[in-house]
Amino acid sequence: MATPIFMAGLPGKMAAETAALVAASDDFELFDIGLSSPVHEGKTIAIGDRKIGLVASDSLAAVALPADTLAVDYTTPDAALDNVRWYVENDVPFVMGTTSFDLDEAKRLVAASGVSAVIAPNMAVPIVLMQAAARWLAAEFPGALAGAELKVVESHQANKRDTSGTAKALVASANGLGVPFPVDDIEKVRDPARQQSEVGVPAEHLAGHAFHRYELSAAAGTVQLVLEHNVLGRRVYAEGTLAALRFLQQRLAAGSRGEVLTMEDVLRG
Ligand SMILES: NC(=O)C1=CN([C@@H]2O[C@H](COP(=O)(O)OP(=O)(O)OC[C@H]3O[C@@H](n4cnc5c(N)ncnc54)[C@H](OP(=O)(O)O)[C@@H]3O)[C@@H](O)[C@H]2O)C=CC1
Ligand SMILES: O=C(O)C1=N[C@H](C(=O)O)C[C@H](O)C1
């Protein structure tokens, strides 16, 4: 039996990309209602051979999900925490890819609930590995780069609302290494002309890309470390999301409740 997946954030780009992979998989199937903003309430969208009806959060009370349903959330920073409240109140384990919401409050809500969740600002396996390496360095060598200076530039499609959650997570590791860089200093590039001419984003990926560059200047400017990670399109995140769903299912089957898992846990699993 395929596990029903309730998609939140349709017809948004990540929710639609993930829904297409869910629809093509053997072990998951799309639940026939998805969560959207009020703008799309009452509309229907086609994904694979399925027609998904869209409801906004005010209409969720009328939605009855099958008991084994898992949710996937790619909505907006403003919507994510209210969605977490709904998932925990309705016993729906979930994978949360949405960025820039109150993660501490989400963790408290999950810990006090009967559901578990995978929450991660980046589902792309290669990027998760890089984040894990940075976290390990910070834990192993706290303060080792004290005195260094950091510059962070991230470029995403023009309609991305928040500063990259991935960049914020990397900055937290830099902070752990002794570099006191505030996330407000992350430079966001959202201008397509600059993205092409300065960042080097190919024209065909201006509408969906994630280019990150971190420049560390250490030892009084005599040493430069540069880390870059560049993603074209969104497929890699959707694939990571399905891996997260499978891992979450395994954890639930093993009795996990009230547990907040990360993509690093998914990779270990
Ligand atoms: N973890 C990861 O690996 C990744 C995370 N992301 C994150 O995912 C999120 C979504 O990104 P993306 O798909 O590109 O953005 P989009 O703007 O394309 O999609 C967001 C969708 O959510 C809808 N929405 C707004 N409010 C609500 C609500 N209350 N309930 C349900 N849906 C709502 C929007 O509605 P409307 O159409 O009216 O605007 C839109 O359709 C962002 O936070 C982004 O940073 C993105 C890529 C990878
Ligand atoms: O909005 C996006 O596109 C992305 N969002 C995530 C983030 O904020 O870090 C992950 C990736 O950068 C793509």
Please outline what is shown here:
This protein is of the alpha/beta class. The chain folds into two domains: about 5-120 and about 235-269, 3-Layer(aba) Sandwich (Rossmann fold); about 125-230, Dihydrodipicolinate Reductase, domain 2. The chain has helices spanning about 15-25, 75-90, 105-110, 125-140, 165-175, 190-200, 235-255, 265-269, and strands at about 5-10, 30, 35, 45, 50-55, 70-75, 95, 115-120, 150-155, 185-190, 210-220, 225-230, 260.
Annotate the secondary structure layout.
Blueprint: E1 3-8, H1 13-24, E2 28-30, E3 33-35, E4 44-47, E5 50-55, E6 70-73, H2 77-89, E7 94-96, H3 103-111, E8 117-119, H4 125-140, E9 149-156, H5 165-176, E10 187-189, H6 192-199, E11 209-218, E12 223-232, H7 235-253, E13 260-261, H8 263-268
Parallel strand pairs: 1-2, 1-6, 3-5, 6-7, 7-8, 8-13, 9-10
Antiparallel strand pairs: 4-5, 9-11, 11-12
The structure holds NADPH dihydro-nicotinamide-adenine-dinucleotide phosphate (NDP) and the ligand O=C(O)C1=N[C@H](C(=O)O)C[C@H](O)C1.
Protein name: 4-hydroxy-tetrahydrodipicolinate reductase
Catalytic activity: (S)-2,3,4,5-tetrahydrodipicolinate + NADP(+) + H2O = (2S,4S)-4-hydroxy-2,3,4,5-tetrahydrodipicolinate + NADPH + H(+); (S)-2,3,4,5-tetrahydrodipicolinate + NAD(+) + H2O = (2S,4S)-4-hydroxy-2,3,4,5-tetrahydrodipicolinate + NADH + H(+)
Pfam family, one: DapB_C
Describe the overall structure.
It catalyses: (S)-2,3,4,5-tetrahydrodipicolinate + NADP(+) + H2O = (2S,4S)-4-hydroxy-2,3,4,5-tetrahydrodipicolinate + NADPH + H(+); (S)-2,3,4,5-tetrahydrodipicolinate + NAD(+) + H2O = (2S,4S)-4-hydroxy-2,3,4,5-tetrahydrodipicolinate + NADH + H(+). This protein is α/β, with parallel strands linked by helices and 269 residues long. It folds into 2 domains: 3-119 and 235-268, NAD(P)-binding Rossmann-like Domain (Rossmann fold), CATH 3.40.50; 125-232, 2-Layer Sandwich (Dihydrodipicolinate Reductase, domain 2), CATH 3.30.360. Helices cover 35% and strands 24% of the residues. The protein has helices at residues 13-24, 77-89, 103-111, 125-140, 165-176, 192-199, 235-253, 263-268, and strands at residues 3-8, 28-30, 33-35, 44-47, 50-55, 70-73, 94-96, 117-119, 149-156, 187-189, 209-218, 223-232, 260-261. It has a 6-stranded parallel sheet, sandwiched between helices. Strands 10-9-11-12 form a 4-stranded mixed sheet. A hairpin with a 4-residue loop joins strand 11 and strand 12 (223-232). Helix 1 packs across helix 7 (235-253), helix 2 runs parallel beside helix 3 (103-111) and helix 4 (125-140) packs parallel to helix 5. The longest helix has 19 residues, at 235-253. It starts with a strand and ends with a helix. Residues 8-9, 11-15, 35-37, 39, 57, 74-77, 79, 97-99, 120-124, 165, 237 line the site of NADPH dihydro-nicotinamide-adenine-dinucleotide phosphate (NDP). NADPH dihydro-nicotinamide-adenine-dinucleotide phosphate is lined by residues 8-9, 11-15, 35-37, 39, 57, 74-77, 79, 97-99, 120-124, 165, 237.
